[in-house]
Amino acid sequence: MSRKNNQYASISRTFEAQASRHPQAIALRCASVALTYAELNARANQVAFHLSTCGVARGDVVAVMMSRSPEQVIAILAVLKCGGAYLPLDGSSPVARNLKCLTAAQVNVVIADHEIHESLALGRHIIDSRTADLFSAQRSDNLEIDGESEDRCYVMFTSGSTGQPKGVVVPHRAVIRLVKQSNYIEVSEHDSILQFAPLSFDASTFEIWGALLNGGTLVLYSGATFDPSLFAKEIREQKVTVLWLTAALFHLIATRFLASLKGIKVLLAGGDVLYPKVVNKVLDAMPELVLVNGYGPTENTTFTCCHRMTTANRPTECVPIGAAISGTQVHILDEALQPVPNGEIGELYASGSGVALGYLNEDGRSGAFFRNPAIADGLIYRTGDLVRRNANGEIEFQGRRDNQVKIRGYRVALEEVQASLLKLERVVDAAVTVEKFDNGDQHLIADLLIDAEGATTVAEVKRALAEELPAYMVPDLIRLTTNLPINTNGKIDRRRIRESAVSTG
């Protein structure tokens, strides 16, 4: 997308325009801390000038390993201001996984707010954001670097079917399309958006930039984990009007802590299937609320489709994912890449401004990203999701084409979990599945064929996995057996697995 097709070429310039128009408006709140747009802009400029002295140039990837804080927001804005792209990493994730991400992204500079493992620091410049007066001597005016909308904005790693995480490269124009002049929500300078999602989860893209690129206030949740009393307190005291929740958290809050949503005008939920009865319970309790079911993979920048629900537009049998958001086109195709008739199931493909630049280091060779002028201009992303259009023209999610699942909002390739299990010394074979518990949430289940000559325990398996995988990818239930039964088709018989399990945990 060229500059003429976009009011501002980059996120940093869009933000700077907001800071220039409303310098004294509150840009960010966290507990008792409040920063105006002018203050946030100045502090980000200081960090950006420091990054430039460290050699960060346009196109470079800078890792940000920081907890949710004003300093974290300042850091990612600073990276963009000096022309770089930020790579959010969770400091609690296994060192081995974070090292894979740093290496794949060729990261030379890391901004951190804590001590990091020596293997991550080796050969890299580590900027300790806690160091007093580290940035105060730097200039606070805007940098002269003028990025373009096709420049890389961030790299976000997702679970990969090959056993390796895949880095999704998202450009500036994809983020601007997500939050500016959208058809699913209108954010103004009067709105406050809560940032609850971790930076490594792409929901944070909507939360952070939805507020800061529209002149609103970004409210940072001050707790480390979900606490219903703190959650309700901050929504109330910080006057939060827009909130994004994973499907699992939405169901939990709606069932047990519904009163905490008081004051919210627009509630977005997604990452998994929403239940109509829960949606209607929320709408009954809060008739003024607009509830949005947001659907989309990281590869198409947070949201691809959205479905707005009110008391006048209630779901019945299922909650649709709706229609494409502004700047996105969707295509429901068969295996021959031909459109399917309404009512029939096909695979969802996305095109338009939200499509990522591809996967890191794959140079467009991945089958998930491709070009086909007969379908759409530009890059097309194959989601792997099966959908259909209902009688009202709304798109309904029908399941997955492949072996990927959503766990607590994160997309997980079962093959990656299986690959990590098979690395364990006593594990001969492994079957990873998903089961729905009584509360409706999906959980990973691992059935392991163990070496009869040796011994291992569920606790040992979990400890080993915790060193390899993020917490959300460690199976909730692990069952050990000396016999993985095979059915007549030569596949693992998962029904009989349960009968042969010798220990669980």
Summarize the structure.
The protein has helices spanning 11-21, 37-53, 70-81, 95-104, 118-121, 172-179, 203-212, 228-237, 247-256, 276-285, 414-422, 458-466, 494-500, and strands spanning 26-30, 33-36, 61-65, 85-88, 109-112, 125-128, 152-158, 166-171, 192-195, 217-220, 242-246, 266-270, 290-295, 305-309, 323-324, 328-333, 346-352, 358-359, 369-372, 376-389, 395-400, 404-407, 410-413, 427-436, 442-450, 477-481, 503-504. It has 505 residues and is α/β, with parallel strands linked by helices.
> What top-tier CATH class of the domain at 405-504 fits best?
Alpha Beta
Termini separation:
51 Å
Please identify the oligomeric state.
Answer: single chain
Give the helix tally: 13
Mean pLDDT: 89
Measured by DSSP, the beta-strand proportion falls in 25-35%
| Whole-angstrom Rg | 23 Å
Structural class: alpha/beta
Spatial order of the strands forming the largest sheet: 11-12-13-14-15
Kindly identify the CATH topology of the domain at 405-504: GMP Synthetase, Chain A, domain 3
The CATH superfamily of the domain at 405-504 bears the name ANL, C-terminal domain
The proportion of residues forming helix, as a percent range, comes to: 25-40%
